[in-house]
Every structure is written in C-alpha cells, then in structure tokens.
Amino acid sequence: MEFNHIEYRKPFYKINGQLKEHLSKYDRLVRLPITYDDLTRYRDLIPILDKNDNDTLWRGVIYNSSDREGLNEKLIEIYEMLVADGDKIPFLKIENIDFCTFGNSKPFRIKVVNELNDNYDFYYIKKADASRVYGLELEDIFSPDKISFLVDKDTLIEDHIVGVPCDEFLKKHEGVKIENRMRFAKEFVKFNERCFTRLLGDMRAYNFVVEITQDFDNIQYRLRAMDFDQQSFEGRKNIYLPQFYTDNISMVNLAQELMSAETADQYKRQERVAMRKRFLATKQKTKSLLRRMRNDTISTPENVQQLARELAVFHKNDRFLEFKKMGQILALHLELQIGVEIIK
C-alpha cells in the first residue's frame, strides 16, 4: 500500500515556552554562534552528482571568501558543542557545506575533517520545528541508539546518523541474497513496531538507514530512522507502520518468507518490552516531554480526529475519542503498547 498524500510541506510548528523549558532542563537548549538564516546568505549553489552522474538533490554552497573564514570558525565551534560539550578539539577544519532543497527542513550538511588523521564527520543545521524536536527526543528515549541535537530559537543542530540509506542498500542487493537474512528481517519487524509505538510516520526506505556491524563470523543489522518531520502529524494509523509502504515491500516479503506470524509477533513483543525498559530508565525525562507534548499543537484538528478514531478501533478504547492533541493520543497509545502508566 502506498501513501500519495503525505504532507511533505507540512506546517512548521514553533517551539513553545514549555518545550523550551524541557530542552533547557536536559541540556538541549544552547546559545549558538550562528543561525540557520546566517547560512542562507550564500553566493551560489552547485549541483552535487553521484558516481553515476545522477542528481543527489544536494547542492554545494559557495560563499564570499570574506564570509567563509568566519563561518568556518563558528561551524567548528558548533561541532565542538555537539560532540564534546564545548571542549576544544584540535586540528579540525570545515571541508564542505552542502544544502538540500528536498523535504521540509531544507538542511545544511556540514563536513568536518580532522587534519591530523583525515577522519571526517557530518552534522546538520536545520530549521527548528517542534514536531522534529519531539521526534528526536522520542528517538533518543525509545530507540536502541542515542542521538545528539541542540536548539537555539529557530535553529536545530542535529547529529549525523551513520548507516547506508535503506533504499540504496536494497537497490545494491536487488536479486542477491544478503548475508544473515533472518537477522535483517527480524530488525525490520522490530523497527516497524518501534515506529508504530512512538508514532513516527513516513518511514519510506530513504528515510532510514541500515547500520551494518561485523559480529564474529556474521553480519548484524540495525535499522535507524534519520528523518523525524512526521512525528505524530498524520491522521492515518498505517502511515506509522513502515510495512505499508511500497518502498519497503521487499523487506515485508523477506519477513513473510522467513518467519511465521507467531514468530513476528514474538519479535514485536520483545521490542515493546525493550521500549518499556528504556522508558523506565528515563521515566522523568519521558514524562517531562509528554506533559509538554500533550498541551502542544503539532498537527491539524482533522488529523487528530482521524488518528483518534483509528486508534480507538485498534485498541478497542474510546478514550482516544476525547483527545484534541496529538500528544494526548501518543501518551495513551504508549501506555497501551508498552504497559506503563504515563497519564495520571
């Protein structure tokens, strides 16, 4: 099943005072040396092509030489804030600044190189949106991996998520049996359940990555979301289930080939148990976030009503029908999915 009407240009939602309080309490709110708008004052953009001369949708950014030196210093300072809590890291330089015109956040991608050993890293500067910030916090809480980000007014600094974009991974292995297929199928089932439980939408194959790890004589996989614009925004329940996207059909077919429905249900239960443990380890932080989310507007009234109706049917619970905010829906949905008390 393909969704053709997902809101690619969904509204931006301002980060309100309550969410800022939460971000400040958990060291996400900072004072940055430059803003997103500062980076938009470029002179020109150059298309970036892949090895097959296809347009990547990224553009190399060219600034006036008088501006670039000052930008580089500030971009290094931001990187140090993101990865080292502001401690100085020697031998860093900014190699590239790229810009993407696709999607909601229109990110700048910053490539940082250590001149001593040529190791490099990336981070992103984006327009700050409350939906995305909630999504990042929920990812940090409920996924197996941590993610770093910083916010200053309308600017969001976001860590790079390492991995191969899943659409590229699938294309590369088309018609080829990947190593440790069962592990890959299992990870897709767990990823599917994790996205649904925390209501992260639009997980088409190009919005998450495959992290590949060598484990003794075998390959292990982990699927990680890398786009959080559609956190608790859309009204249709199935948008929060990656299994319903045409882009992901090969992974659905693989899971159906290798495991029974009972086995898949077991992996789903395992993931919900793991999410419950992650909640219990960060209970105060999670409740702080959800208290604010329950009072915030991050979707349209129509989407809220539709998702409330669909989840009321799914859970056989009419309490959803009383809700006017997506955060209220998410809090009850989490309670029912992972078996914890969130709402008092």
Please characterize this protein's 3D structure.
By secondary structure, the protein is α+β, with helices and mostly antiparallel strands. It folds into 2 domains: 17-128 and 148-159, no CATH class; 164-338. It contains 11 helices and 10 strands. It has helices at 17-25, 36-39, 65-84, 130-142, 166-172, 181-197, 249-258, 261-281, 283-293, 301-315, 326-338; strands at 44-49, 55-62, 92-100, 108-114, 120-127, 149-152, 155-159, 164-165, 208-215, 218-225. The strands form 2 sheets. The protein has a 7-stranded antiparallel sheet. A hairpin with a 5-residue loop joins strand 1 and strand 2 (55-62). The longest helix is centred in the last third of the chain and has 21 residues, at 261-281.
